[in-house]
Write a structure and sequence with these properties.
The chain has 519 residues and is mainly alpha-helical. The chain contains 25 helices and no strands. The N and C termini lie far apart (60 Å).
Length: 519
Amino acid sequence: MEILELAHFGWWSVLPPIIAIILALITKEVLSSLIIGILAGALIFSKGNPVHMVVTTFNIMADKIGGNANILVFLGLLGALVVLVTRAGGSAAYGEWAIKRLKTRKGACLATAALGCLIFIDDYFNCLTVGTVMRPVTDRHKISRAKLSYLLDATAAPICIIAPISSWGASVATYISDAGAGNGMTTFMQIIPYNLYALGTILMVLIICSSHINYGSMASFEKNAIEKGDLFSHPEEEVNEAEPQRSINGKGKVYDLVIPILSLIIFTVLAMVYTGGGFSGEASFTESFGNCDSSLSLVLGSFCALVVTFIQFIPRKVLSFTEFMHGITEGIKSMVPSFTILILAWTIGGVCSSDYLNTGGFIGNLVNDSSFPVFVLPAVIFVVAGFLGFATGTSWGTMALLIPIGAAICTPASTAHLLLPVLGAILAGAVYGDHISPISDTTILSSTGAGCNHIDHVSTQMTYATTVTVCAVIGYIVMGILNSPWIPLVITFVLITGSIVVMGKISEKKTPINYGDIN
């Protein structure tokens, strides 16, 4: 019996995201690519009726804006906070402080990755906060914005998906419980070592940060940053001008950055506990993360951080009241490009949802109806989850769809022993697909947090992410045979390390970089 109702549109349901992704990679212009993908999907759903296509498009868009309004509010508030801290001189002061202590390029990269690992509560929060804090430091050490955006993205979802106390961990635990695959949080903890992609990505970040190894198109961006001081382009492009500098107040201190950021973290955590029923006694502290409204929590946390910033800046006359209010306006305006891309990404995700083309349902049924040797099941599920995450731009949607299917596939006695490997493969593939998808909100926010061109981030990150993925596929094949995570994890780690070294040597011959005295 089929787990999901078979989609009526078949392979046509996969076409819209593929159109958007291919156009984005070819044209490097994400807005028009998303619009064309959305219209193509709406036209397919409308069976060629252009009037119905337009109505469907704006119905989906309005629904997505309404359903994700808190994320848009959070981005606006965070943009305001970033501008205020910058105008007050807090970012510049922190940059001066950090540059004295982070004396090497490797140290700046490792500090960025470490901060990304520490902020594991939510991936949106992670990308934008770490980018805001570390951008002045990485700029000083001539680390390209493409490299910075990779470090943000690679320490966002991969960390959140193995952190029990996070919005991701809580949601996955709920999916597992609903699928009847045991106690949600207990099972989530058990499948952490089975998540070869997330753990392999963390290893890759450590190796990349600790060495001068760069490969793929990332090497070109790093070459331009190191040799020409251009953080935004690769050598084949014209040198980009630096970002316009906002007026900075010389009165700013390091704590003018640290206190607002700490306030954001503390109040966001408290808001998650509050919205999850932790303060009312309806849930324990850990359970409250599972029940929380993460988007509302981010809004509450950022609003409280703005209040703290107002109290911190105005009495000391670091900023005048007028400057403070102008900073809020400018900050919200700075997020308009991100608003636009996110709304379009949500819309194309809506076109592909079960209410319209049901892309996920179609792919899920292909997996459920396929017959292949049992031991390759984790590897196949991993690849399918990666494709689905890539096509729809959502790891959460991918996990919500495939976890029930994976649990059902592993119900018979012949496959019951593969439950944990299959669940681990679903989480890993979902994160990989989300990572390399240009329509993923996390990918968009990583490029936003780093101040990097979005398609540049996608194209440079794809090579690194796919390296880990190829090694993980081999690991999952071994895992299907051994039904244990440890040897496959070691094999995956060895393959990743070897691949990075080999690719680095090949790239050094093709794109030699003169590091000079940079360490």
